[in-house]
Amino acid sequence: MSGHSTYVPKSPVMKWFESRLPLFGLIHSSFVAYPTPRNLNYLWTFGGILSFMLVAQIVTGIVLVMHYTPHATMAFSSVEHIMRDVNYGWLLRYLHANGASMFFIAVYIHMFRGMYYGSYKAPREVLWILGVIIFLLMMATAFMGYVLPWGQMSFWGATVITNLFSALPIVGEPIVTWLWGGYSVDNPTLNRFFSLHYLLPFMIAGVVALHVWALHVVGQNNPTGVDIKNPAKDAVPFTPYATVKDAFGLVCFLVVFAWFVFYVPNYLGHADNYTEANPAVTPAHIVPEWYFLPFYAILRAIPNKLMGVIAMFSSIAVLVFLPWLDTSKVRSAVYRPLFKQFFWVFVAVCVGLGYLGAMPPEGGYVIAARVLTAYYFIHFLVILPLLGLFETPRPVPASIADAVLAKHGGGAAAAVAMGAASAPSKK
Predict the structure, then answer these.
(1) What residue spans of 358-383 are helical by DSSP H?
(2) How many folded domains does the chain comprise?
(3) Mind listing the UniProt keywords for this protein, alphabetically (predicted)?
(4) Cα distance between the two ends of the chain
(5) Where in the sequence is the domain holding 256, given as residue range(s)?
(6) Is the separation of the CB atoms in 257 and 98 below 8 Å?
(7) CB of 385 within 8 A of CB of 325?
(8) Is 370 inside a domain boundary?
(9) d(CA 230, CA 426)
(10) How far apart are CA 315 and CA 343, in angstroms?
(11) Exposure on the CB side of residue 403, measured as CA atoms within 13 A
């Protein structure tokens, strides 16, 4: 599905370089001439937003590392040093800390959009699985990064989460000992987490490159779920059409990001983490960062420790099998009335689990968490397979152009005809 490159080097130097390494031709075919469905909405801008946020996190992280000391007796003080003494250190710290939250906001929107429009269905199964791998790497990176300030919630969060592995038979205790670097969370633990937190973003960047490659092989999905059949009518060049929309979406996202950074920089954090870690004092209520809360609620909903750990990891692993669990032949929820209703119930369940993950594990909160946990797995393992068998979808348009014309009426015909002249054609 990659666009046919029409890039022709002008200067002799560029011709020489392109004949030996066709880098600019690759860029041109992938990000200029690449045929993009003409009906994409602003939910498709979050791929570009996530790419920007990944680069921003890596850049701010590298600068912060220049002033951070990964030692249990000095880590907290070095973070305070960054906030108080380093030029614009407060800005870098708030950009990085809030950037993690904004990264997860964008990735959750990106994932729910993929679920709603069936972007995981054939031939995009590998594309979806790579996305789940990126999500897992993000969670590992964020967890290890949260430990680095060595505040109270950092220390006790690391103690609780790493202890979960001890529930695994035979291999559990050796894994915990390796993660700790000893027999408790201490300086070796901090060094391990610092090393991995620095390494994993570059692994994420590598998987993102594979993700983008897979996307350009199979092509982008779109709100109708219909593939491009006639590039002259169904598609427009990626540049300037998609790039302008992506740029506008990014600007809007950055306005929200800037509001958090400059007006409420600590809103998404936890007050206890501004107290230095003390192994002798346990916080009254240990909670992870907000983006882990749904999975934390699933973990606590199961009374058995081992089964809780299995349920928590299974809640992520089940996403890998989503392309095969959804048996419907129709991709987009736009043409699946029953699926659309169950989808929004599922979104409400995820939000509810997030709320319950922040509540004390007692009374009605535990009962509610168990009900929502059960529904979470029922959605994937029961509802989706049965919907594919019993749901009657609405008629799907024959092409993207037909869907655009049906939505906007005959007035769109002129726009389609004008776009056909500028769109790339495949021979």
Answers:
(1) 363-378
(2) 1
(3) Electron transport, Heme, Iron, Membrane, Metal-binding, Respiratory chain, Transmembrane, Transmembrane helix, Transport
(4) 12
(5) 25-217+236-286
(6) yes
(7) yes
(8) no
(9) 9
(10) 16
(11) 24
CA separation for the pair 162, 256 (Å, rounded): 33
Structural domain includes residue 362:
no
At position 290, the amino acid (one-letter code) is W
| CB 192 within 8 Å of CB 176 | no
Give the residue from 64, 136, 83, 84 showing the smallest Cα distance to 107. Answer: 136
Closest CA to 111 of 394, 311, 350: 350
- AA identity, residue 226: V
Q: How far apart are CA 18 and CA 217, in angstroms?
A: 22
Strand partners, 276: 151
Decide if 60 is inside a domain. Answer: yes
Tell me how many degrees the CA angle 219-225-231 measures, rounded to the nearest 5: 50
Per-residue pLDDT band at 412 (split at 50, 70, 90): very low
DSSP string of 54-77, one letter each residue: HHHHHHHHHHHHTT---STTTHHH
Using pLDDT thresholds of 50, 70 and 90, give the confidence band for residue 421. very low
Read off the pLDDT of each residue in 65-73 and give the average, rounded to a whole number: 96
- Note the residue count of the chain: 427
- Please give the single-letter amino acid code of residue 245: K
Residue 37 has pLDDT above 90, yes or no: yes
Maximum C-alpha span of the chain: 75
> Alpha-carbon distance 353 to 376, whole Å?
9
Q: Which two tokens stand for residue 126?
A: 């590998």
Tokens of 382: 């029961």
Confirm whether 311 is domain-assigned: no
Q: Name all contacts of 256-264 with Cβ < 8 Å and 24+ positions apart.
A: 256/102, 257/98, 257/99, 257/102, 260/98, 260/101, 260/102, 261/91, 261/94, 261/95, 261/98
Task: Evaluate whether 221 touches 15 at the Cβ level (below 8 Å).
Answer: no
72: Cα separation from own chain's centroid: 31
Residue whose pair of structure tokens reads 């038979």 in the numeric block: 169
Task: Assign 3-class secondary structure to 257-324.
Answer: HHHHHHHCCCCCCCHHHHCECCCCCCCCCCCCCHHHHHHHHHHHHCCCHHHHHHHHHHHHHHHHHHHH
Supply the CATH number for residue 136's domain.
Answer: 1.20.810.10
Across-strand partners of 237? Answer: 35
pLDDT value for 416? 47
Residue 423 binned pLDDT confidence (cut-offs 50, 70, 90): very low
